[in-house]
Every structure is written in structure tokens, then in C-alpha cells.
Design brief:
Length: 464
């Protein structure tokens, strides 16, 4: 099958470049080959066609001529399992999405507002007493918040021994592939060998077994004591029935819970760490944002934070400049299609490069500059700005992640005076399959903000 042109470097070398430096690999290929190019960097060096033009994005993500088979997401199965939403296809995938989407939207999502704000306060208070004025990784603090929030949403718990063990093990297992070099483990199946608890894969499997034991124990207990009044996602999944009246098996439940736990906190934590970085890197951004947050009066009412235009622009620009999900999941054409004058045959695997679309200078002048104002000056279509992908696999946590990011930023910025601990620019780096700030953004607490401005903002938070 003829595929669009791409670099001629041997596939192994290109895959190593892709693992170590994904942004540069995409940028260099786009400079040389344009809007559509091929890189053999999939599992087992399968060639992948990258697209970035909004017109191609629309075609690939939303036309009936493409589908998004779960089998192509095999890179996720060691951790998330074969019954994960990410591994499912067709009708089963569609049904499961319909089940999982509602808890992350509307009223049910807003019910988590107070929990998010309380957890943000708790984590920052702990950071203040642990570190004083010494520096700490902002990403790690953000991960504590986002993990606690998603555990609460998924299980309805975020305290007790089982919760603490899950929190620790999930953080550890994700750290195992948390650097560009360690992420190789995911890309090269031949590295996935259990050579004892000290080997990388042995350690991965050991931690996974412990996580599974905890999740299966929770499932067992909850099956035995079904409580119809509970609104957490496990309760929802336990009572779900298919057309034949069958419920989900324990393995199906485990894979779905694991998917939500992992996808639902890693990404948001990185997004938040980036936001804190840019806000403190650029004084004019911080100044404008603080003026907006401090202007919130007591009578501002529910949802006032969600409507703040500059806060929204800061969050959008954060996820534009370094999108945590750099690429979409793979899509394949069902019939021969014409993409930007390239004939793409069934069997080809196509990815949307979210990063390249977000760095097109025809859409975003000076694309490497952090400038939230661009989101106040114009509206971008769903194929020009797509940090959460699109179409049949669009992120189910999109509204939830934006909600959480805004609340955490508003709570912490209103109450604490923070600063970057290192003046050097923070670079993006691969973390597993996502993009994260290298080093986690080192910050330090300078003090509490004056009670006047903090009180005004937090009163309105509590009302959400
Ligand atoms: C800033 C935070 C987040 C970012 C940037 C992000 C980004 C993405 C992207 C790019 C995709 C692929 C979409 C596609 O291929 O079209 C995706 C899918 C997904 N995301 Fe997120 N995500 C975030 C937060 C969340 C949260 C909070 C949850 C859970 C509540 C979540 C759960 C998922 C799931 C389950 C999928 C797979 C959907 C499917 O296969 O149908 N994500 N996300």
C-alpha cells in the first residue's frame, strides 16, 4: 500500500526519536513533508499517517468513512486491559460511552465542585507544612488532588486504607513509565519480560497485581452490599444491564475503573502544572488573572468561576501550547479516501497530531508564545482547537477536566502566594504516552494571600 511520504531513517531509530522527542519528530517531519506524512513509530514499527490540517482532522475524526478500532490501542492494554473503553470498538464502545459520559457532565459533575476545592486546600495546606518555603514539584501536588478527585468520583471514597494503598500504587505504576527513557517499556513489547521484582516489567506486573487485588476486593464488597442510593461510577456500572439483562463481569468492571482512574487524573495533573508554570512565568498573565479572580464578589453565585473569560482563556492556551494528549487515538478509513490530495487506502492507520494543529501559524500567530488573549479575540472550530480529540473517541472527561482545572487554579491562586523556584524555562517531556512538564515545575510557597481577596473568591467557590 502506498502511504504519504515521510523521513527515510530506519524505523527503529525513528521510534527511538519519537519516544525521546515526540514534538521535535513531528515538527521536523511537518517542515519537510507538510500537512500529511508517515512515520513508522507504531507498536512493532507499524507506519502511522499523521495529519494536522483542520480539514483533514474533520474528515478523520467526524466523517462516516473512518472508524476508531480499539484493537489499535494495544499499547494501553498492559495497564488498562482488553475490556477498557479504550480497547472496545463499534456498538459495544458506543454503549459503554453512553454509560460513562453522564457522570462527567452537568449536575452530576457540578456536585464535585466542593470536593475539588476542599481537596485543593487540603493538599496546599499539607505542602505548606511539609515544605515551608522550600521548593516542591507542583505536578506531584496536582496529581494528589486529581487522583483524590477521580477516586471519589469512581468509588465514592477517598479515605481509608484501601484508598491510601491505591493512591500510592497508582502513582508508583505510572512513574515506572514516567520519563522518556522509561516510556520505551510501552513501545517495545520485547522489553516486557518479567525478570523478577527489580526488573522494570517485573515491578510493573507486581504493582498491577496489588492494584487488581484492591479493585477486585472493592468490587466484591460492593456487589454484596448494593446500595441504590450511591451515585459513584462503580455503583452505576454495577447496576448497568445489557439488552439481554446481563451485568458487567468483574474483569470488565476492573478494566473500566482502571481506565477512568488513570486517564482521569494523569492528564489533568499535567495540565494544571503547566497552567501554574505559565501563570507564574509571565507576570502580565498572573496580574490579569488575579484581577479577574479578586473581582469575584460574594454575590457572584453558582458557576461564576466557570464563566470567567480570562481564566478560561488561560486554561485553553495551556492545553493549546503543550497539549497533554499530543495525538488522537488511531483511526482507519473504511473505504479509499482522499485526504488533502493523498489517496489513503483501508488498512492505513491515521493519527491526528493535536500538537501540530495547535502550532499552525495560520491559526495561531507566534504559536510558541503563551498568549491567552488569542482565545478572547476569536473562536476556534472543533478541528482547529482540539486538546480532547474529537468524534467517536473524544475524551469523555473533557468537561470534567476543564471544571477541575478552573476550580483548582481559582482556589489555590486566591489563597496562596506562589513563585517558580527556578528561572529556567520548563521544557515539555514525554510521560508515558502523554506530554508533561519536565521536572514537574518546581515552585515554592511565598505566603498566604490577604484575607480580603481570598475570602471574596472562596465564598463564591463554596457556592458552586
Ligand atoms: C486535561 C485533561 C485531559 C486531556 C488533555 C485529555 C485528552 C484526551 C484525548 C486527546 C483523548 C483522545 C481523543 C480522540 O482520540 O479523539 C482522550 C480520550 C479519553 N479520555 Fe481524556 N483527557 C483529559 C482528561 C480526562 C479525564 C478527566 C477523564 C476521565 C474522567 C478522561 C478519560 C478519557 C477516556 C476514557 C478516553 C477514551 C475515550 C474513548 O475511547 O472513547 N480524560 N482524552
Amino acid at each position: 500500500m502506498k502511504l504519504p511520504d515521510g523521513p527515510k531513517t530506519p524505523p527503529l531509530l525513528q521510534t527511538i526519536q519519537w519516544i525521546l522527542n515526540p514534538l521535535e519528530t513531528m515538527e521536523r517531519s511537518a517542515e519537510k513533508y507538510g500537512d500529511v506524512f508517515t512515520l513508522p513509530v507504531g507498536l512493532n514499527f507499524r507506519p502511522l499517517v499523521f495529519v494536522s490540517h483542520p480539514q483533514a482532522m474533520q474528515e478523520v475524526l467526524d466523517s462516516k468513512q473512518f472508524e476508531a478500532p480499539g484493537e489499535l490501542n494495544a499499547i494501553f492494554t498492559p495497564l488498562l486491559g482488553q475490556q477498557s473503553l479504550i480497547s472496545l470498538s463499534g456498538d459495544r464502545h458506543r454503549r459503554e460511552r453512553q454509560l460513562l459520559l453522564p457522570p462527567f457532565h452537568g449536575e452530576r459533575m457540578r456536585a464535585y465542585g466542593k470536593i475539588v476545592c476542599d481537596l485543593a486546600r487540603q493538599v496546599m495546606n499539607e505542602a505548606a507544612s511539609t515544605y515551608g518555603d522550600r521548593s516542591f514539584s507542583m505536578r506531584s501536588q496536582m496529581q494528589k488532588i486529581s487522583l483524590a478527585v477521580i477516586l471519589k468520583a469512581v468509588f465514592g471514597i477517598n479515605e481509608g486504607q484501601r484508598y491510601q494503598q491505591l493512591e500510592k500504587l497508582l502513582t508508583e505504576i505510572l512513574d515506572l513509565t514516567g520519563s522518556p527513557v522509561r516510556a520505551s517499556l510501552l513501545f517495545f513489547p520485547w522489553m516486557q519480560k518479567d525478570l523478577g521484582a527489580w526488573s522494570p516489567w517485573g515491578s510493573f506486573l507486581h504493582k498491577e497485581r496489588l492494584i487488581n487485588e484492591l479493585i477486585y476486593s472493592e468490587i466484591r464488597e460492593r456487589r454484596e452490599n448494593l446500595d441504590p442510593s450511591r451515585t459513584d461510577i462503580l455503583s452505576l456500572l454495577l447496576s448497568a444491564r445489557d439488552d439481554r439483562g446481563e451485568g458487567l463481569t468483574d474483569v470488565e468492571l476492573r478494566d473500566e475503573l482502571m481506565t477512568l482512574l488513570v486517564a482521569g487524573h494523569e492528564t489533568t495533573a499535567s495540565g494544571l502544572a503547566w497552567a501554574f508554570y505559565w501563570i507564574h512565568k509571565l507576570p502580565e498573565v498572573r496580574q490579569k488573572l488575579m484581577a479577574e479572580l479578586d473581582s469575584l464578589g460574594e454575590a457572584s453565585g453558582d458557576g461564576a468561576i466557570m464563566k470567567l473569560p480570562y481564566l478560561n482563556a488561560v486554561c485553553c492556551e495551556t492545553l493549546r501550547i503543550y497539549p497533554v494528549g499530543m495525538i488522537t487515538f488511531p483511526r482507519v478509513p473504511k473505504v479509499p479516501v482522499n485526504l488533502m490530495d493523498y489517496q489513503i487506502e483501508p488498512g492505513a492507520i491515521v493519527l491526528g497530531s493535536i500538537y501540530l494543529t495547535h502550532h499552525r501559524s495560520d491559526l495561531y500567530p507566534e504559536p510558541s508564545r503563551f498568549r491567552p488573549e488569542r482565545f478572547l479575540e476569536r473562536q476556534f472550530s472543533a478541528y482547529e482547537y482540539l486538546p480532547f480529540g474529537g468524534g467517536s473517541r473524544r475524551c469523555i472527561g473533557m468537561a470534567f477536566a476543564q471544571f477541575e482545572m478552573k476550580l483548582v487554579l481559582a482556589t489555590i491562586l486566591s489563597e496562596w502566594e506562589l513563585g517558580l523556584a527556578d528561572a529556567r524555562p520548563v521544557r515539555p517531556a514525554r510521560r508515558g504516552l502523554t506530554l508533561s512538564p519536565a521536572g514537574g515545575v518546581k515552585m515554592a510557597i511565598k505566603g498566604r494571600r490577604s484575607p480580603h481577596s481570598a475570602a471574596a473568591a472562596t465564598d463564591s467557590l463554596a457556592a458552586i
